[in-house]
């Protein structure tokens, strides 16, 4: 009897649980508003009006499982037209589920679909992605980096850009000692209260090239930027707010640098055919003399050198001694391991990450396959009128020129076709597109030769860039068509810009971003942090174009873009804490960095789609507002760095490169290991030794002088053991800095017979702050005394 009475309740409970599971499974299918762009001329003749066509098209889409299963009391209906557009654009806005929108993209006459976004006055896009806002946090406390001076060592600056407007700025700080170096194209008025100094260095370059820099008219012997790179980096670091700007129709909004009130001093050292060390060192040297607070260095040697052979590292050491933080790019040699540049521990090394913004342009093949691509093409879509697919061809019949270089294409072969090209090491996408267009081609598929993030580029013809794996499948399709006596076809569907939850998970480590471990001293973990570096909008040069028609902003990618993001954040921290050392600022940025993306998962590596490690992301992704209140910092003095150099065996002559006139007696310094440097991260190399004990000192910079921090160790323990002593740090008014020891013990055979890596972290926490340091452990590689010799 009791079973019979309870059966209806059990059935009802099971039914309710089933309903909840269905609701959960379709949560990602919640309808939202999408903007649908159509080709008006593609309206089938059976429809009297465009509205009739739109309604019929939407009704042909599959119904939403959520609304069809549970009715409108849970969600408003999908497939409902909200607006129709007939003037500014052609199309309509409709409430659709993501899967319906995806299905709609494949239908005839649909040009592109983009999700609707909440609009506000904000940058295009990285300050918002980084959590910066005018009402609280680092921007407000630092007064936007007011009066901090950032020296940008790069290709110069284009001073007329709005990003360098000085409206509302106070007078130039009295401590500034620099000048505005003028020239025929760079009058004295080029400098203002924003660009407070500008200089140019070319003597080393001219010596190396054996000709004047302006011999062919493509360069300027002034600080004027003829390339764009320096202007881009300067505006990322400290560009003033500029409203309603973007690159053509993309990324339109309010463009801002990281430290909008900081001053810029531009030092031009970069030229068409390269950069020479002598010019770079001259720029750094003068920046120190002029009185900059931060140096932003988006360049590097392109190879790993011992510190005493690296003149830039030596110059950066001198800047550090003067209290100047040097922020530098990690390099664009990823995803290969041990590819990282600028390895000195006194330099802040920045790798590149993605942000939650993409510029999708899908490639649809004639057999229905769809491949994700990226593009900044802003003209009319290919075959906008008819929507018909276009024949696809290789760049040459014999496929010997994969790169579509100028003059190599046969007009008879490529005319009225979409041409397949490859990204080369030094190819320019716009030049490739021009070559295709000149030969009569009507579109281009650009295949990257690496896996990873897709960099959006500007093209003169309809074009999209796809990944290497997608390219292989496209080639496979083409070969199959040819073998069957048929012609391969495709069409490119441009989807504009997507941001936020509609984009891929972010941040992710960019595949181009150079990786550790360090080839010089593997006990120093590099990179230090990652920051936005892919598809970044910032100011650009006006050289070589009609000033009335030149693009004021551009979107480009690289660790060069990540570096000035962190340079600007460092300027904000310098403004908030003017007495902090470069190492303290660096520590705050590192120990507060995060490792969870916007989907709630660990940050992934775009090159492998696996979780990234500290050798790819360092301490993690910068978190500006957290860095404002780090709780504790790992401070490092110049003498600490000298002890570090002694620990790696530098002799008196080598030491003098860094200590200058100061004599350092390495025999009297008790630092026994490079791992004892008071660095905010740990890298342990097990060779012949199975146990290491490193020392660290933490300094309380929190608001409370009385603070108690406990330790937490994270990481797998199957083949290593980590212990910390003491496990509690009690800070008082009289004890603002406290030491601890951390011991790493290997459970594997020593020496290791094969290369192995493991990772973890050590956290000090007090209930308000978490001071986190990543840990990387390696087996099967040599230690710092002979590590570089094998490369």
Description:
It is a single chain. The chain is of the alpha/beta class and 791 residues long. It folds into 4 domains: 31-115, Peptidase S8 propeptide/proteinase inhibitor I9 (Alpha-Beta Plaits, 2-Layer Sandwich); 126-356 and 507-627, Peptidase S8/S53 domain (Rossmann fold, 3-Layer(aba) Sandwich), CATH 3.40.50.200; 360-496, Glucose Oxidase, domain 1, CATH 3.50.30.30; 678-790, Sandwich (Immunoglobulin-like), CATH 2.60.40.2310. Helix content is 23%, strand content 23%. It is built from 19 helices and 33 strands. It has a 7-stranded parallel beta sheet, with helices on both faces. A 7-stranded mixed beta sheet has the order 15-14-20-16-17-18-19, with helices on both faces. A 5-stranded mixed beta sheet has the order 26-33-32-28-30, with no helix packed on it. A hairpin with a 4-residue loop joins strand 32 (756-765) and strand 33 (770-779). Helix 9 (277-290) runs parallel beside helix 10. Residues 1-27, 66-76, 117-123 and 783-791 have low confidence and may be disordered.
């Amino acid at each position: 009897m009791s079973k019979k009475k309870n059966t209806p309740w059990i059935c009802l409970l099971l039914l309710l649980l089933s309903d909840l599971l269905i609701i959960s499974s379709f949560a990602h299918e919640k309808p939202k508003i999408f903007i649908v762009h159509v080709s008006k001329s593609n309206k089938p003749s059976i429809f009297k009006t465009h509205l009739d066509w739109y309604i019929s098209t939407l009704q042909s889409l599959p119904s939403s499982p959520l609304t069809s299963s549970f009715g409108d009391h849970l969600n408003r209906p999908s497939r409902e037209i909200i607006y129709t557009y007939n003037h500014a654009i052609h199309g309509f806005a409709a409430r659709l589920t993501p899967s319906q929108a995806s299905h709609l993209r494949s239908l005839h006459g649909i040009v592109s679909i983009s999700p609707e976004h909440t609009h506000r006055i904000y940058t295009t896009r990285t300050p918002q992605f980084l959590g910066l806002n005018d009402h609280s946090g680092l921007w407000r406390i630092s007064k936007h980096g007011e009066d901090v001076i950032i020296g940008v060592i790069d290709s110069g600056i284009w001073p007329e850009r709005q990003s360098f407007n000085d409206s509302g700025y106070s007078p130039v700080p009295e401590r500034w000692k620099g000048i505005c170096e003028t020239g025929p194209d760079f009058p004295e008025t080029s400098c203002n209260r924003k660009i407070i100094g500008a200089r140019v260095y070319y003597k080393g370059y001219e010596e190396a090239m054996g000709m004047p820099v302006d011999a062919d008219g493509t360069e300027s012997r002034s600080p004027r930027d003829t390339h764009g790179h320096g202007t881009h980096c300067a505006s990322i670091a400290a560009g003033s707010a500029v409203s309603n700007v973007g690159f053509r129709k993309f990324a339109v909004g309010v463009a801002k640098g990281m430290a909008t009130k900081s001053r810029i001093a531009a030092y031009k050292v970069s030229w068409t055919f390269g950069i020479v060390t002598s010019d770079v060192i001259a720029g750094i040297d003068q920046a120190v003399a002029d009185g900059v607070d931060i140096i932003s260095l988006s360049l590097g040697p392109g190879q790993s050198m011992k510190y005493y052979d690296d003149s830039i590292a030596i110059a950066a050491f001198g800047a550090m001694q003067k209290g100047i933080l040097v922020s530098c790019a990690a390099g664009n040699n990823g995803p290969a391991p041990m590819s990282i540049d600028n390895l000195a521990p006194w330099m802040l090394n920045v790798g590149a990450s993605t942000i939650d913004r993409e510029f999708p342009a899908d490639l649809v093949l004639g057999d229905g396959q769809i491949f994700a691509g990226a593009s900044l093409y802003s003209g009319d879509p290919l075959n906008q009128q008819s929507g018909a697919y276009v024949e696809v061809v290789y760049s040459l019949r014999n496929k010997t020129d994969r790169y579509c270089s100028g003059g190599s294409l046969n007009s008879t072969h490529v005319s009225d076709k979409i041409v397949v090209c490859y990204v080369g090491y030094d190819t320019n996408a716009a030049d490739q597109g021009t070559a295709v267009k000149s030969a009569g081609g009507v579109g281009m598929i650009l295949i990257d030769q690496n896996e990873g993030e897709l960099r959006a580029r500007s093209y003169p013809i309809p074009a999209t860039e796809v990944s290497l794996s997608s390219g292989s499948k496209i080639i496979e399709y083409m070969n199959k068509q040819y073998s069957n006596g048929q012609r391969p076809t495709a069409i490119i569907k441009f989807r504009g810009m997507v941001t936020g939850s509609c984009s891929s998970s972010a941040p992710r480590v960019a595949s181009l971003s150079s990786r550790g471990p360090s080839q010089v001293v593997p006990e120093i973990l590099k990179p230090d942090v990652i920051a936005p570096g892919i598809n970044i909008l910032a100011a650009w040069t006006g050289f070589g174009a009609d000033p009335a028609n030149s693009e004021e902003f551009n979107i480009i990618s690289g660790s060069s873009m990540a570096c000035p993001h962190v340079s600007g954040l460092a300027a904000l921290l310098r403004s908030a804490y003017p007495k902090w050392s470069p190492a303290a600022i660096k520590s705050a940025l590192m120990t507060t960095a995060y490792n969870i993306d916007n989907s709630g998962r660990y940050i992934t590596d775009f090159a492998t789609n696996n979780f990234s490690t500290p050798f790819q992301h360092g301490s993690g992704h910068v978190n500006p507002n957290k860095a404002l209140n780090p709780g504790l910092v790992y401070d490092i003095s110049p003498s600490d760095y000298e002890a570090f150099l002694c620990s790696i065996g530098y002799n008196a002559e080598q030491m003098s490169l860094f200590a200058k006139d100061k004599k350092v007696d390495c025999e009297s310094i008790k630092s026994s290991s490079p791992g004892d440097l008071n660095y905010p991260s740990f890298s342990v190399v097990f060779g012949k030794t199975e146990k290491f004990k490193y020392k660290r000192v933490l300094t309380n910079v929190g608001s409370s002088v009385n603070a108690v921090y406990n330790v937490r160790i994270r990481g797998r323990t199957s083949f290593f053991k980590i212990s910390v002593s003491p496990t509690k740090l009690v800070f008082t008014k009289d004890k603002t800095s406290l030491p601890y020891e951390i011991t790493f013990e290997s459970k594997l055979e020593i020496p290791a017979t094969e290369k192995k890596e493991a990772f973890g972290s050590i956290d000090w926490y007090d209930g308000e702050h978490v001071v986190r340091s990543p840990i990387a452990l390696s087996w099967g590689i040599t230690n710092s005394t002979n590590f570089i010799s094998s490369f």
